[in-house]
Amino acid sequence: MEASLHCENRTQTFEQTYRLLKPGGTLVLFEYYLLDGWDEKNPEHTENMRKHLYGNGSARTPSIKEGLKQVTDAGFEI
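-> structure tokens emitted (78 positions)
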């Protein structure tokens, strides 16, 4: 829970998780993702993101679409 947010390359992290799971195993994730309303030009959004990244030691926060792709590219089915 809240571990992959510290990883620069989440796909690589999920690939190793996939490799280590027993066949038929299940991965349950609790992830931070950007919502569709995220606006990188909105000063309030960017300041909140700065605080989130710094305060949590996060590498970056992907969009939902990017996050789902990272998981499926690692071999998982959603």
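The chain is about 45% helix and 0% strand.
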